Amino acid sequence: MDDDDIHLIESVASEMMIRLGYEPHIVGVTKDALVFSDEQIANFKILNEEGIKKMHADLAVENPEDLKRRLIQKAVLEREAVMLSSKDEEKYNDLDEEDEDDVDDKVKKMYPYKWPKGASKVGYLSVDQVTERLQVKEGMSFVAGMYDVQYSVAMQRGYYPSDLDKPCQDSFLEGSFGGIQWLCVFDGHGSTGHNCANFARDNLISSYEANALPCKKALGSALLDVNTSLHESKIDDTNSGTTALTVLIKDDKVGEAIRAKALTNDQTPHRKDELERIKKAGGLVMTSEQYDGDETVISPPRIWSPDRKAGKFPGCAFTRSIGDSNGEDLGVTAEAEFSEYTLSDGDIMILIGSDGIFEFISDIEAANIACLYDNPSEACRALVGESYKRWIKREDRTDDITVITGFISKNFSS
């Protein structure tokens, strides 16, 4: 570059520093910065946007992973900066040492598990923002045969930099209905996923009670009935739906627990039996990149229609769901898988969670975290807090996070 080019670049840098509120200090400039007209600044903006578009187009071909990272960074940088002191400056007084300790106490109360000191800015959110997203229901209990179960629920709305007001698409159901204890987590997906999850929550019990069948058959039938009712409702479930993890605990002498496993057994095309079932139904299984002719695999396998003329759909990364009517002819089904388990003296807890919990925390690690606490409410908060930290660290965003934790103890009065 010649001296004029360098002068132009340094002048632009000086202009941007002034706009950002910094004292300009252009290194190596021996003459005053150029003064730009509004028209010139507008033209610079257009040139910059065109350059970014070209760069993105090149990266989409040469390095899709880097493009994804840059887009995430862009979304984070574009959101309004929120410091804890900006909401209530007098209350927090710019986070001096005394106030920071107070804030740490608030964080530790929400998330007791190894939350670092100085955590007043929790990820990209303030403590108040996290509190607004976190819902805790605690102090519940039930008796299952010879066992007492104390349990709590925690659910936190996800953080998406590009959609800060995105509704929580998780939902849960708990309580005793018809002499059976229900513990359920629903994880919605798609544009109407929150409506689908809430619909399943609100209609599952009545559908179950309408089936004069043994427990397991009644549950399986109820899930299919809810799926049909969702199709017929005003909710558009063409490309939206919800998974359902449903635990039914019968109060009898052996404390029989019946689980409809919609999440715990990885109902995805990764599973050989599910892959074969989808193929037999006519579904096409490949990554989104492979569908588009790119052999670079950077995303999970999904289910597609083999009729490319009809469009690229449905793109399900799961094989079983309530809703997702576009995928039913391709093998996506609301038919549940079941397992039965008898509670014993060696059982100490029940953990039920959405993939917001188990995306980055293994089953055994979740159990180890929960075992650090005597109170299921604190265990729930700890699991949500640890999951939140890991999402922020790895993705710069978080999924909706929901967990039900039940502590089991022997009922010696039985």
Fold and architecture overview:
With 414 residues, the protein is of the alpha+beta class. It has helices at residues 3-19, 38-62, 64-78, 84-87, 89-92, 97-110, 127-133, 193-209, 215-232, 272-281, 288-291, 355-358, 363-370, 376-395; strands spanning 121-122, 125-126, 134-144, 147-156, 170-177, 180-189, 241-250, 256-260, 284-286, 302-304, 314-316, 322-323, 338-342, 349-353, 401-410. The strands form 4 sheets. Strands 5, 6, 7, 8, 12 and 13 form a 6-stranded antiparallel beta sheet that branches. Strands 3-4-15-14 form a 4-stranded antiparallel beta sheet. Strand 5 (170-177) and strand 6 (180-189) form a beta hairpin. Helix 2 (38-62) runs antiparallel to helix 3 and helix 8 (193-209) packs across helix 9.
Helix content: 40-55%
| Straight-line N-to-C gap | 87 Å
Our Rg estimate from Cα atoms comes to: 26 Å
Write the H/E string, N to C. HHHHHHEEHEEEEHHEEHEHEEEEEHHHE
Q: Please tell me what the overall shape is.
A: globular
* Poorly predicted runs of 5 or more residues: 81-98, 252-263
Structural class by helix and strand composition: alpha+beta
Question: What is the count of helical runs?
Answer: 14
Largest sheet: 6 strands, antiparallel
In total, how many beta strands? 15
**Mean pLDDT figure:** 81
**What fraction of residues sit in β-strands?**
15-25%
Mind sketching the topology for me?
Layout: H1 3-19, H2 38-62, H3 64-78, H4 84-87, H5 89-92, H6 97-110, E1 121-122, E2 125-126, H7 127-133, E3 134-144, E4 147-156, E5 170-177, E6 180-189, H8 193-209, H9 215-232, E7 241-250, E8 256-260, H10 272-281, E9 284-286, H11 288-291, E10 302-304, E11 314-316, E12 322-323, E13 338-342, E14 349-353, H12 355-358, H13 363-370, H14 376-395, E15 401-410
Antiparallel strand pairs: 1-2, 3-4, 4-15, 5-6, 6-7, 7-8, 7-12, 8-13, 9-10, 10-11, 14-15
